[in-house]
Amino acid sequence: MDNLINEKRIEQIIKFLNSLDIKSARFIEIINSKDQLIIQTFNEALTHSSSNKIINYEKLEFFGDAVLRLSASDFIDRKYKNMSVGNRSELRAQIVSDEWLTQLGKKIFIDKVIIKGFKAINDKNSKDTIIAETTEALIGAIYKCFNSIKEVNLWLDNFWEKDSEIFLKAPYKFNAKSSLQEWCQRQGFDLPVYKVNEVSQNHGDPKRFFCEIYINGSKEACCFGKSHKNAEKNAASILIEKIFLKKN
């Protein structure tokens, strides 16, 4: 075994992979065999570049991006056979998004097994980004080790089953800015104007930015956010939900 991966780390990786509860006898057998190449691949997927400039998750993250889209497409094709191509694209965009990956990473507690350097450990602003990227690298590693999306889907389908139903019940909530723009166009209104001000200098502060939305000169909604983009999204979500509640 590569002397860069000690026995404690090997056991940590195996314990983590088993905790994913992938219902595949092949997956369980290969993981618990402590195969050198398998362990090295997953160790790479769970290592940030701040810890190792050469062996880190960046290549597997790039690979995982394509695997994730293929697996999601396969899931949608099996689950929603009669769904239009346009709706398939919209649904897929939600279940492969960075936000979705971050949520998944937190559910599986991936942050506990990521090896980071000092800089990344102390950078709270990049924590969610690292979680999303590592989760995507993990997906790439699973495919790489088994040369199949079967194990990926055996794992992710359970999450997608729940998340897809939530999205399809109220898709406007997840694409709030686009939904709001489309609604304005249908009403013959000017496009919404977002006015964002930075009200805090603290990185990671959920109320760092304050956004107001104006439609035809009238302020219709406002909300805080941890970033410029997040504040706009939060305010748009409030307004579009208000609009749809009135319709119903």
Explained architecture:
- Helices cover 60% and strands 8% of the residues.
- By secondary structure, it is mainly α.
- The protein folds into 2 domains: 7-169, Ribonuclease iii, N-terminal Endonuclease Domain, Chain A; 176-247, Double Stranded RNA Binding Domain, CATH 3.30.160.
- α3 (36-45) runs antiparallel to α8 (127-146), α4 crosses α5 (85-95) and α10 crosses α11.
Summarize the structure.
The chain is mainly alpha-helical. About 60% of the residues lie in helices and about 10% in strands. The chain is built from eleven helices and three strands.
Helix-strand layout with pairing:
Layout (H helix, E strand, L loop, with lengths): L6 H13 L5 H8 L3 H10 L12 H22 L5 H11 L2 H10 L10 H4 L5 H20 L3 H20 L6 H12 L5 E6 L10 E7 L2 E8 L2 H20 L1
Antiparallel strand pairs: 1-2, 2-3
- What fraction of the residues are assigned to beta strands by DSSP? 5-15%
At the fourth level of CATH, the homologous superfamily of the largest domain is: Ribonuclease III domain
How many E strands?
3
Q: What's the main sheet like?
A: 3 strands, antiparallel
The overall number of domains is 2
Q: How does the overall form come out from the CA principal axes?
A: flat
**Distinct helical segment count:** 11
Radius of gyration: 21 Å
Mean pLDDT: 90
As for the CATH topology of the largest domain, it is Ribonuclease iii, N-terminal Endonuclease Domain, Chain A
CATH architecture of the largest domain: Orthogonal Bundle
CATH class of the largest domain: Mainly Alpha
Helix content: 55-70%
The helix/strand series, from N terminus to C terminus, equals HHHHHHHHHHEEEH
Order of strands across the biggest sheet?
1-2-3
Oligomer: single chain
What is the structural class?
mainly alpha
Measured between the Cα atoms of the first and last residue, the distance is 62 Å
